[in-house]
Amino acid sequence: MTTTLDERIDAAFVPGGRTVASDPYPWPFDGNLKPQNTAIVVIDMQVDFCAPGGYVDSMGYDLSNTRAPIAPIAKLLEVARAKDFTVIHTREGHKPDLSDLPANKRWRSQRIGAGIGDQGPCGRILVRGEPGWEIIPELQPIAGEPIIDKPGKGSFLATDFDLVLQTKGIRNIVLCGVTTDVCVHTTMRDANDRGYECLVLSDCTGATKLENHLAALDMVKMQGGVFGAVATSDAFIAAIA
Amino acid sequence: MARIMARPFDFPLDPARVALIVIDMQRDFLEPGGFGESLGNDVSRLQAIVPATARLIEGFRAAGRPVIHTRECHRPDLSDCPPAKRLRGAPGSRIGDAGPMGRILIAGEPGAEIVPELFPIAGELVIDKPGKGAFHATDLSAHLETLGVTQLVFAGVTTEVCVQTTMREANDRGFECLIAEDATESYFAEFKRAAIDMIVAQGAIVGWAAPVEAIVAGLAAEEGAKQAGSETSAEPAPAGSAPGESARAASAVSPAPIGFGAGL
């Protein structure tokens, strides 16, 4: 029996399904929201990006933007873990021999005085195993939560992220972490292109510049939700309660 | 450019763009008392290719070309192990179960480690792969791009499973692929023969096949020509492979020291 795409979409809708109060549409599109098919993905909440003494701090950026999501993410994780949602963490970092570091990425990082692989305030910058590369203490993964070590901004490139999601039967992705306009957005775009239904939580993400955070959230909502939808963590928690 | 006598016709070796991939020469597959033998396989067939594989690795090290090692293994929490793969194992000897050399096919366990004779030396890439192919869900592609590699020589086990899958993946991605016939093996002689026949069929539809001796000679001829044509002495070959030294050096890269996805 063959079906058209529209028939399959109609069939996907869950009668009386759960959705999150989100913008620009109630997410997920078909109301199929349950712990078994939904992952909370926490992007790059690492010492170097959002802890005092990390290299973003040492570059003189205002940390308040990247630290603001910590408390909301911690609260979200508590609820999501209690409800048995999958939680996945990512870390941006390179192998100690830098064999997975593209030349232009190193060159550009050196130009702003924070060369990847060079000694920073918390060990070698963005190198796996260094103190600055670790996830901040407030958001430490618990046993059984996969950690994806990624060399790029996106979480799919050169990783097993897609395989882990497929193996766990994940269809919905809830995005948290830093920074909204860089790693969160790249991951969301990659996931969206692969057919995952994505939601970004506005208070669980942050950027080095507030304008970029706001613009990045705005971009998601264009064209009927070109990359998915945007909600607050309170709205998501209310939907899964 | 060196021409290597190969099937179905000469392989045009580009010594500036070639790398060696040694597939899954792991203790659990090769050693008596390992997982492979516990399934009733004759591991002596696989053991027999260790010396030729070692000569091939030495040839690449001497020529200063990359040697890449792969290990088939999964995250300890099995989050990268499809149920369909795990459930095909016999109950009690599935991936993740306690095996003769630690948990079966789990990263960091003794059985998942590369055999001592072929241990990576410092600086050599080790790819932990959850599938049969080394490109799937790994960073191999990104590394090959960074290295500027366009040709791959394959060794390892087993010919018809992980070696052939990876070779097909590489072929579709545009790499020129050559399998070292006497540095690859299967638990089943007829499968090795059939796999290589399929590879070289239809004008090298997947790639070429040649013996280790011809490949090493091709690399060495290039190296010699380079040295003869140069006023300055050539770079010394990378650190040798004295067993003690290799084991020490390799601890930096193997087993992967950090996190669950460290090999990825």
TrEMBL record, chain A:
<dbReference type="GO" id="GO:0016787">
    <property type="term" value="F:hydrolase activity"/>
</dbReference>
<protein>
    <submittedName>
        <fullName>Cysteine hydrolase</fullName>
    </submittedName>
</protein>
<dbReference type="Pfam" id="PF00857">
    <property type="entry name" value="Isochorismatase"/>
</dbReference>
<feature type="domain" description="Isochorismatase-like">
    <location>
        <begin position="38"/>
        <end position="230"/>
    </location>
</feature>
<keyword id="KW-0378">Hydrolase</keyword>
<dbReference type="InterPro" id="IPR050272">
    <property type="entry name" value="Isochorismatase-like_hydrls"/>
</dbReference>
<dbReference type="InterPro" id="IPR036380">
    <property type="entry name" value="Isochorismatase-like_sf"/>
</dbReference>
<dbReference type="InterPro" id="IPR000868">
    <property type="entry name" value="Isochorismatase-like_dom"/>
</dbReference>
